[in-house]
């Protein structure tokens, strides 16, 4: 179903306060809050007594008190007080989850806590580079399986029809794609030479005339995407090109967190190599990108309904090669993980 031994985004850092709240990841309900030291704490959101969500309780001296009968749990998930006197039952505990804050995001590890290593969180070059600007938006709720968005982010061709007013250009319809499988995921990419910049990018590039454009669509296991857009004056791009000093680069990072089989929480931000302190540019980019992602959401929500209710088989096209490779490898990773877990439980 899901790959559990991996880091997923649970929230933006500024979403987690010193109050209890429920976050859902991989179909599991998690109680999250900040302790008095400002550290993010995550634990199973169900008191073992009668399963009232702990997020419905209260924080008491960095412990979590159940709102039904007062069972109290420390940050490691161990019950430290129960009503009625006597010995606290050995089963009075909840599962804690490893968490780590990086890039303004709270990351959570849903699998074997013993192998959770923050060094395995995706590396994002230029995140703290003062010469690069950043824009972001609120997380989006998608009514579709997370793999449909992964498919979307391995599909440069869809922009020609879904994003006509923003990312589309004539060359996005028929320029051939190249697919590259890596150790961490799949890349679908192509250079489109000597054409007019797409409407969104025309507003931000700092050169006149036609461009050479790179679409680099990359999704890494289990569900993290880098969409790199490169716009350089015509004649300076391509595999063997020498990029111009006014080349525009935008790295869009996208993190799909499965909440259920048919629901996904989508986090995103963009890094750009121009005008890092231009707040108006950041605002415009956030608004326009959000508008484009709303177009994706409308399509994918309907695709989920169509795939769920289909009465005839769906087909694949040549342009789906990257998506199919990604799904096959992720499926194999999930199956291998399940096999290991089964052996360990014997």
TrEMBL record:
Describe the location of the Rieske domain by residue ranges: 7-108
Indicate the transmembrane segments per the record. none
Question: Which protein is depicted?
Answer: (2Fe-2S)-binding protein
The UniProt keywords, alphabetically, are: 2Fe-2S, Iron, Iron-sulfur, Metal-binding, Oxidoreductase
UniProt keyword Kinase, yes or no: no
- Which superkingdom? Bacteria
Q: Which InterPro entries match?
A: Cholesterol_7-desaturase, Rieske_2Fe-2S, Rieske_2Fe-2S_sf, VanA_C_cat
Q: Does the keyword Iron feature in the UniProt annotation?
A: yes
């Amino acid at each position: 179903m899901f790959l559990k031994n991996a880091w997923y985004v649970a929230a933006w850092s500024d979403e987690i306060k010193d109050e209890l709240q429920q976050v859902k990841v991989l179909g599991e309900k998690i109680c999250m809050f900040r302790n008095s030291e400002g550290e993010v704490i995550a634990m199973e959101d169900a008191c073992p007594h009668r399963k009232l969500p702990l997020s419905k309780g209260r924080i008491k001296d960095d412990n979590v008190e159940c709102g039904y009968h007062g069972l109290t749990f420390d940050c490691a998930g161990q019950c430290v007080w129960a009503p009625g006197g006597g010995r606290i039952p050995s089963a009075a505990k909840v599962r804690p989850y490893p968490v780590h804050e990086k890039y303004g995001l709270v990351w959570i590890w849903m699998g074997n806590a013993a192998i959770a290593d923050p060094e395995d969180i995706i590396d994002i070059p230029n995140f703290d580079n003062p010469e690069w600007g950043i824009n972001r938006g609120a997380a989006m709720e998608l009514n579709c399986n997370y793999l449909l968005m992964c498919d979307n982010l391995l599909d440069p061709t869809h922009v020609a029809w879904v994003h006509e007013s923003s990312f589309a250009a004539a060359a996005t319809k028929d320029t051939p794609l190249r697919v590259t499988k890596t150790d961490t995921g799949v890349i679908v990419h192509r250079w489109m030479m000597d054409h007019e910049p797409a409407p969104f990018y025309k507003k931000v590039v700092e050169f006149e005339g036609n461009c050479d454009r790179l679409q680099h669509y990359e999704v890494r296991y289990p569900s993290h995407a880098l969409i790199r857009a490169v716009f350089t004056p015509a004649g300076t791009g391509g595999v063997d090109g020498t990029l111009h000093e006014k080349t525009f680069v935008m790295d869009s990072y996208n993190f799909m967190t499965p909440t259920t089989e048919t629901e996904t929480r989508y986090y995103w931000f963009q890094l750009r190599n121009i005008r890092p302190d231009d707040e108006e540019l950041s605002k415009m980019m956030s608004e326009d990108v959000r508008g484009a992602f709303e177009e994706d959401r409308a399509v994918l929500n309907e695709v989920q309904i169509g795939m769920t209710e289909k009465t005839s088989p769906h087909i694949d096209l040549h342009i789906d090669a990257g998506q199919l490779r990604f799904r096959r490898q992720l499926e194999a990773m999930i199956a291998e993980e399940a096999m290991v877990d089964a052996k360990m439980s014997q």
